[in-house]
Amino acid sequence: MKFCNSSYIIDKNGINFTVYCAAYYSSIIREMIIKLKYRKDFLCGEALAELMNKVLVKNKVQFDEIVYVPMTKYDFRKRGFNQSEFLALKLSRMYDKPLKHYIRKTTQTKDQIGLTDEMRWNNLKGTFVFKPKEKIGNKVVLLIDDVFTTGATTFFCSKELIENGAKKVIVLTIAKSSI
After folding, report:
1. How many domains does the chain have?
2. Which of 178, 144, 175 is nearest to 28 (CA)?
3. Domain-located, residue 3
4. pLDDT computed for residue 121 by the predictor
5. How many CA atoms are closer than 13 Å to the CA of 49, on its beta-carbon side?
6. CA–CA distance, 132 with 134 (Å, rounded to integer)
7. Where are the beta strands (DSSP E) in 13-158?
8. CB neighbours (10 Å) of residue 102?
9. pLDDT tens, 99-156?
10. Are the CB atoms for 104 and 128 separated by under 8 Å?
11. Phi first, then psi: what are they for 10, rounded to 5°?
């Protein structure tokens, strides 16, 4: 298992946020993510959440609320759960911080696997929307996802959060791919 020892700053179109990843997407981490996502191995999920927790502790990350990358209703019904929501809920309980559902994914998109960087960005543009009745109120939001590849998913989610009142967005993923 190769751990990530640094954070990444994403700064695009006036939207910027920090990304922390627990490890690189290889060997054991890849197997654990696949087991969680496709085989509902929640024990793997527990272990992955603990790795994410260690990143927060090591980097002294401070936040007010937790949000996760949403799925479409179709994908949720097909899989039966959202792995990012599962991880966010675990962290929410560890830190006694509210888990918020600020964002919806409104458009069914192609699977990101196998797409080029540009295709990934175009595939996700306009698919995430802020829920209109929600209010963030100048909070620091921790956004949870499973894998960080090009940053497209976390960028579009962070954009919605920042444009709707988040003071700051910090992204935390289990893994960073080497794409």
Report:
1. 1
2. 175
3. no
4. 78
5. 21
6. 6
7. 15-24, 65-68, 103-105, 128-130, 140-148
8. 23
9. 999 999 998 876 766 777 777 777 778 889 998 788 898 999 999 999 998 888 999 9
10. yes
11. -105, 125
What is the Cα–Cα distance from 57 to 125, expressed in whole angstroms? 33
Task: Name the residue range of residue 74's domain.
Answer: 8-176
* Residue 57 domain-assigned (yes or no): yes
Say if residues 157 and 84 touch (Cβ distance below 8 Å). no
Please state whether 35 falls in left (phi above 0), alpha (psi between -120 and 50) or beta: alpha
Name the token pair of 175.
Answer: 């893994």
Q: What is the pLDDT of residue 112?
A: 67
| Position 77 in a domain | yes
Average pLDDT, the chain: 92
| Backbone φ and ψ of 87, nearest 5° | -65, -40
- What CATH number has the domain bearing residue 168? 3.40.50.2020
* Of 178 and 146, more confident: 146
Question: How long a stretch of residues is the chain?
Answer: 179
Query: Rounded to a whole number, what is the largest CA-CA distance in the chain?
Result: 42
Vertex 173: Cα angle to 89 and 99 (nearest 5): 25
Mean pLDDT to the nearest integer, 81-109: 95
Residue range 23-48: mean pLDDT, rounded: 96
Establish if 2 belongs to a structural domain: no
